[in-house]
Design a protein that fits this description.
This is tRNA:m(4)X modification enzyme TRM13. GO terms for molecular function: tRNA 2'-O-methyltransferase activity; zinc ion binding. There is one protein chain. By secondary structure, the protein is α/β, with parallel strands linked by helices. It has 2 domains: about 5-85, no CATH class; about 120-350, Rossmann fold (3-Layer(aba) Sandwich). It is built from 9 helices and 10 strands. The protein has helices at about 5-15, 80-85, 125-140, 155-160, 165-180, 200-205, 230, 275-285, 300-325; strands at about 30, 35, 65, 75, 185-190, 215-220, 240-245, 265, 330-335, 345-350. Helix 7 (about 230) links the parallel strand 6 and strand 7.
Length: about 350
């Protein structure tokens, strides 16, 4: 014997809702899925709560719309502005004083930018570009020395980790900070693209800070397992640690109170190319470049790799010229071997008057 359709069986099982609740100020909306009346309270003399007011035949005069900040609830249209400004729990927090939209962007964002990949270039245009890269590299990029440093604060981590490439990089960067005499207890250390803040943690150990130094960790993404509390320390006088969750392009360093009266030391290990450029701009402003890796077909991998390498060094020279023109002594150093990391070039800059 064939079974009845499920929808028909369910319809037969449905029973009409019971009378509205006698509880004063309880919503009269019947939640069909849960087979009960809504538990939300109502205003005086209303039969429905705010979410279900659209079903109130007595109150048809007011139109309700979806909240722009949180589509899970609605609001009276004539009360929208007040709701967005003062009442909505999902409204975004106000911008901090050090937020300034696009302050570190030299050029305005184009409304429309035509994208072109190198694979679409003609053979003649591509050959010209390759020749220009080789010529500029020969003319502009000097021989960059390799100087892999080390520091004792990373000894235990290098020994305990199976793949210690990150520890080798961190040890070399902190070693170069020590070589440049930048590990000062009275300084404010700023880590751009900080992530968890691990590099700042080892910097604190190298400084042997007990509360006189301050640390600013800048990253637009929220990260789990942060080192913030560890950097603060366990001594009675804890280090000042401030995490700035913001895009570097909008960061006005001059509005950060922690920098006032402090020597500033800036470092990073995780920035992409474009963020590096905008970061340099933010530092020169004192108040972020993902080098577009040109992957294209038609050439062997080794040739493509060398061209990309030369492009990056040419851009690095442009960065050094930019900083030198703004009063810095600049040094480019390969701080680890390429086998450890291909991103092994560090840009060291110190103000000339220091």
């Amino acid at each position: 014997m064939p079974k009845e359709p499920q929808a028909k069986r369910q319809k037969e099982k449905e029973t009409p809702p019971p009378p509205p609740p006698d509880n004063p100020r309880q919503c009269h909306f019947w939640v069909k899925r849960k087979r009960r009346y809504c538990h939300l309270p109502t205003k005086i003399d209303n039969d429905f709560c705010g979410e279900h007011a659209i079903y109130d035949a007595k109150k048809k005069g007011k139109e309700r719309i979806v909240c722009p900040y949180d589509p899970s609830h609605t609001v009276n249209k004539d009360e929208l502005n007040k709701h967005l400004e003062k009442k909505c729990n999902s409204r975004p927090p106000p911008n901090p004083p050090y937020f300034s939209l696009n302050i570190n962007c030299t050029l305005p964002f184009p409304e429309f930018e035509e994208k072109m990949t190198l694979s679409h270039l003609s053979k003649e245009t591509l050959d010209t570009l390759i020749n220009n890269v080789n010529q500029w590299y020969q003319q502009l990029v000097p021989k960059i020395k390799t100087e892999v440093m080390d520091h004792l604060v990373l000894k235990e981590k290098k020994e305990s980790t199976k793949n210690g490439k990150h520890a080798v990089q961190q040890a070399s960067l902190i070693g170069h900070l020590e070589r440049l005499q930048l590990l000062r207890k009275d300084a404010c250390f700023i880590e751009y693209g900080s992530g968890k803040g691990e590099l700042s943690y080892f910097t604190k150990l190298a400084v042997q800070d007990e509360g006189s130094a301050s640390f600013i960790l800048i990253d637009r993404k929220n990260t789990r397992c942060k080192f913030d509390n560890v950097i603060r320390g366990n001594s009675e006088k804890k280090s000042l640690v401030k995490r700035v969750g913001m895009d570097i392009k909008d960061l006005d360093l001059s509005k950060l109170d922690l920098l006032k009266g402090k020597n500033v030391v800036v470092y990073s290990k995780h920035l992409c190319g474009s963020a590096t450029d905008i970061t340099l701009k933010s530092l020169v402003n004192h108040s972020k470049s993902n080098i577009d890796r040109m992957h294209y077909s038609g050439l062997e991998h080794s040739v493509r790799e060398q061209l990309g390498y030369k492009c990056k060094r040419i851009i690095d020279i442009g960065r050094t010229k930019y900083l030198e023109a703004n009063g810095f002594d600049v040094e480019l150093i390969y701080y680890v071997e390429p086998s450890t990391s291909l991103e092994n070039l560090a840009l060291m800059a110190i103000p000339k008057n220091k």
